[in-house]
Design a protein that fits this description.
Blueprint: H1 2-17, H2 19-26, H3 31-52, E1 60-64, E2 70-73, H4 82-94, H5 97-108, H6 122-137, H7 141-155, E3 158-159, E4 164-165, E5 178-180, H8 187-197, H9 200-216, E6 227-230, E7 237-241, H10 253-270, H11 273-287, H12 314-327, H13 333-350, E8 370-373, E9 378-382, H14 385-403
Antiparallel strand pairs: 1-2, 3-4, 5-6, 6-7, 8-9
């Protein structure tokens, strides 16, 4: 097993050593061309991925298992909304009606989750799928009902004593009421529900959760813990941990990405300057970190002990990229220019052969080299559905922000 791990790391290092060559080569292309070629590639890959899962109705693709087979998940999985969401983004760019029909078909798998109050990830599940359908296809009663029902299910997990919605229903690791930084992403569904229904309780819950997380999740350098567990009876903090990172005090890359994206989104929805300031400080922490590679695709943890031989996490890079592009809308020109320059570097890197799979390989996922849960020995150096989702989102945002001026 040890030799196998070394071999995997060696192969990864060779691939990443070539990345500077490919990034330099792709730098000669216009971003219009980079994005157009990337979406053409994505459309072909996802057509192949759609074909792969046609024999397993009800299941959705997520990653590749250690034995090389496609990892499919049930609609109740937290990652279930990303595949249909990616199809919606491909449809948005291409206008291909066949892709729209696939997006509608796979989105419909999530309908069964509209009343699922056993997970905080109902935002990921429904807003990435039905939320994009609502945005691109116009308002319809069924979609509205599904999204509002999902928002009510999420709101039911709110604890006023704690000031947060509960993340995991588990007592392991000594947690009584765990709240993870990822949960910031699910607040977008609550803010949508507030705007569409006029029910201010959705907004109040989202804002209180964001305020509590701002107060308790972040360190002085604006890095964040992954998990903060509270006493549900008193609201007191019991534990602070970085469960999926290298150590409790390390900066798990995807956790930093979730925080950046979540507070950027919450500033958009509320115009609360505290959220904007936090997002700017998180961005500065990430961009200027001593261990951020030149291509701006981070290692899986900024404090991983074997840097520069540590695994990269493309999913974190894609989330950061998408967030930086949005954040550039809310800051002065010098900051905006820095964010967009980093995002362009990331998009060019991600679109190169160093990170983009050849057509017909990678089980038809778009991107390679993500890390899901390294301490748990799961999803290490594999494609992940949410990496593809945020990559496609970032390219659309970059095109709409920079290339349509």
């Amino acid at each position: 097993m040890y030799i196998s791990v070394l071999r995997r790391i060696s192969i990864l290092m060779i691939s990443l050593l070539l990345s500077s060559f490919w990034v330099n080569a792709i730098a000669r292309k216009s971003m219009d061309k980079v994005i157009d070629e990337a979406f053409k590639n994505a459309a072909i890959q996802y057509a192949g991925l759609t074909d792969q899962i046609s024999s397993t109705p009800g299941l959705l693709p997520h990653s590749i298992l250690p034995d090389g087979t496609l990892h499919r998940v049930k609609p109740s999985s937290w990652v279930s909304g990303f595949f249909p969401g990616s199809l919606w983004y491909i449809y948005e760019y291409t206008g291909n009606d066949a892709v729209r029909k696939d997006a509608e078909r796979f989105t419909s798998y999530l309908k069964s989750q509209k009343n699922n109050n056993m997970t905080h990830d109902i935002g990921f599940m429904l807003y990435c799928s039905y939320g994009n359908k609502w945005r691109l296809c116009g308002k319809d009663k069924e979609t509205e009902d599904i999204l509002l029902s999902g928002a009510r299910a999420l709101a039911s997990r709110f604890n006023a004593k704690v000031g947060c919605t509960q993340s995991w229903d588990t007592g392991k690791c000594g947690w009584s009421f765990p709240v993870i930084i990822d949960n910031m992403m699910n607040l977008e569904l609550l803010m949508w529900a507030y705007k569409e229904s006029g029910d201010i309780s959705f907004r109040d819950i989202a804002v209180k959760h964001a305020d509590t997380t701002l107060k308790n999740h972040f360190r002085k350098d604006y890095s964040s813990y992954h998990v903060v567990s509270y006493n549900p009876e008193t609201g007191d903090i019991e534990i602070k941990q970085t469960h999926q990172g290298y150590s409790n005090e390390s900066s798990w890359a995807r956790g930093q990405a979730w925080g950046l994206y979540g507070y950027t989104m919450m500033y958009r929805e509320t115009k609360n300057e505290a959220y904007l300031n936090l997002a700017r400080n998180i961005a500065s922490f990430i961009i200027h970190h001593k261990n951020m590679p030149k291509d701006k695709i981070p290692y899986w943890d900024f404090d991983a002990p074997n840097i520069p031989h540590a695994y990269r996490d493309v999913s974190a890079g894609a989330i950061i990229c998408s967030a930086l592009i949005e954040l550039s809308n809310y800051v002065k020109k010098d900051e905006a220019d820095e964010y967009l320059a980093v995002a362009e570097t990331q998009l060019r890197a991600l679109s190169s052969p160093a990170y983009t799979a050849k057509i017909g390989t990678n089980k038809n996922f778009i991107l390679k080299h993500s890390v899901g849960y390294l301490p748990g020995n799961r999803e290490i150096d594999v494609p992940l559905s949410y990496a593809d989702y945020y990559y496609l989102e970032a390219m659309l945002r970059f095109k709409n922000k920079v290339l349509k001026k």
